[in-house]
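#dry-run=false #mode=assembly
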Amino acid sequence: MEALKQELKEKIVTTLNLEDIAIEDIADNDPLFGDGLGLDSIDALELIVILDKDYGIKLVDPKEGKSIFQSIETMAAYIEANRTK
Amino acid sequence: MTKKTYINGVGCISTQKTFDTVFLEEAVVNENENVLKIVSPAYKDYIAPAASRRMAKGVKNGIVAAALAVKDAGVENVDAIITGTGLGCIEDSEKFLTAILDNNEEFLTPTSFIQSTHNTVAAQIALTMQCKGYNFTYVNGAVSFESALLDAKMQIEDNEANSILIGGVDENGAYTTALFKLSGRIKQDNQEPYHLLNATTNGAVYGEGASFFVLENEKKETTYAQVLDIEMINTLEVNEVENKIISFLKANNLEISDVDAIVLGFDGNAAFEKYYSELAQNAFAATTQLYYKHLCGEFDTASAFGLWMASKIIKTQDVPEITRVNSVTKPAYNTILLYNQLNGKNHSFTLLSK
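#status=ok
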């Protein structure tokens, strides 16, 4: 689980071009949207693609995204429970 | 009454250090590379990190060059923004197309798609400046920038706008550069030094950059030059160029002897050098001859760098030695003609005066 969280942080920083944010600056429970990392709706689409491409998870209900993408912690837990690759 | 068009502010990001400098005092000719890379400004001084993280190189360079031009002109906003680009944000276009192939047309992310459109630069500048006026991008090969310039000049002369920001932007993309090398458009590797004058090999030394200008309908303290005329012709034979220039000058009540300097687009391509060398050796032998693509490289909107250089010369009356083709000097540089073409196509004549 810790390795997955680290992997997610690296993917988010690289894929979303978060130039000013170091991986160690992201706490597991930091909000990804709003006051935390400040991600936006385009980033949400990028995260959905990461779930699909890298972990084989297709989000059928977009409303699920709100709880899944709350933080690295929630994202990792969801991936751990639902990954197909 | 028809208004006149003045260049009242300039900004340039190029393969030379053309920001935080007076003119070309820090310019260096790099004859060891066949593709020149941008000298980057501190983007963070101009663009918020949250906004810049999705921006392609060309967008960032365009925004900074536009900001420099607007500041130079002392204006807060403009009535319109018009850009020209040959290949647009080619890096992100490549990323997007590569992702389509690599992922078997699945998993396409929005970021590189958003940035891959040609009008992204003009749009992002408008968003940054909160300019809600006319916003247009010309994609016409090597006359993309001249098309933007002509559009702006016509709007100013017809009183449709008082101030217009125009610019030419292009960036290098790794895959496109590799294709250009394969096709011979860029000089082959390992043939350095790459001399642009008296070239003996085909292909050009390529580059990238963004040059922006604030055009206004009144002469101010910041004025660089007046844009007298622009003409674009798709195809010309070498032996037709001189007569076309004579007609172009005549339409502006000028003759070749009235031109103080001619700025030529020598790009090192021996196959098309005659377009310039014939003029240099004959009709304009007694005129100061200047070139610039050894500084900025060849690309579809490289001529915008040429206009930046010519504008600076008219304002400062300083002709940097590094730009000279011949040793002819003039007591003053009040009328400058720019001639550019790319691979024998897209010829343009631009006439500036003090």
